[in-house]
């Protein structure tokens, strides 16, 4: 069992990012929308904040990996705006962390969601991934 004493419900992390052209929907395959923040970019920022909160607290040789993400994006954010992402640990036990995530721009809340991450041994993760890859290449 992994020691997770340092990760506690209520812990938070906040990050900010100014929306640039590389963050827009056009760069994420969303058709012709070139001046609005892309939903996948919001999700990426949420996952980044989650990792920043959890990973520094893990024992040597362990990392967190995403297991599930669910996000509602309900307000458009324009190029040049600043996005603030806040994540909060809701649950942490038995190698699992569940987080609440919220995103805001200067005008209010733009997205919210839940994210679950599993704490795994990095070396074992890579061994399993490489074994799976080798098995697939045999076929």
Number of strands: 5
CA-atom Rg in angstroms: 17 Å
Here the CATH topology equals Thiol Ester Dehydrase, Chain A
- Looking across the biggest beta sheet, what order are the strands in? 1-3-4-5-2
C-alpha geometry: flat
Question: Total helix count?
Answer: 2
Structural class: alpha+beta
* N-to-C order of helices and strands: EHEEEEH
* Overall pLDDT score: 94
Number of domains: 1
Largest sheet: 5 strands, antiparallel
The level of helicity is: 10-25%
Could you name the ranges where pLDDT drops below 50 across 5 or more consecutive residues? Answer: none
Q: What is the correct CATH architecture?
A: Roll
CATH class: Alpha Beta
Beta fraction of the residues?
35-45%
First-last Cα distance? 35 Å
CATH superfamily: Hotdog Thioesterase
Domain Fluoroacetyl-CoA-specific thioesterase-like: 19-122
InterPro entries: FlK (IPR025540), FlK-like_dom (IPR054485), HotDog_dom_sf (IPR029069)
Protein name: Thioesterase
Mind sketching the topology for me?
Blueprint: E1 12-18, H1 39-54, E2 62-73, E3 82-93, E4 96-105, E5 108-121, H2 122-138
Antiparallel strand pairs: 1-3, 2-5, 3-4, 4-5
What report would you give on this structure?
- This is Thioesterase.
- The chain is of the alpha+beta class and 139 residues long.
- It has a single domain, classed as Thiol Ester Dehydrase, Chain A (Roll).
- The chain is built from two helices and five strands; from the N terminus they run βαββββα.
- It has a five-stranded antiparallel sheet.
- The N and C termini lie far apart (35 Å).
- 24% of the residues are buried.
């Amino acid at each position: 069992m992994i020691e997770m004493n340092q990760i506690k419900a209520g812990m938070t992390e906040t990050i900010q990012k100014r929306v640039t052209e590389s963050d827009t929907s056009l760069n994420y395959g969303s058709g012709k929308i070139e001046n609005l923040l892309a939903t996948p970019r919001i999700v990426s920022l949420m996952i980044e904040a989650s990792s920043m909160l959890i990973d520094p607290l893990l024992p040597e040789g362990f990392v967190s990996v995403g297991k599930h993400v669910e996000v509602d994006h309900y307000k458009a954010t324009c190029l040049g705006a600043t996005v603030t992402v806040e994540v909060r640990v809701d649950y942490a036990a038995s190698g699992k962390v569940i987080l609440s995530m919220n995103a805001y721009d200067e005008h209010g809340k733009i997205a919210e969601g839940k994210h679950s991450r599993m704490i795994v041994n990095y070396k074992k993760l890579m061994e399993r991934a490489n074994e799976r890859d080798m098995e697939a290449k045999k076929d």
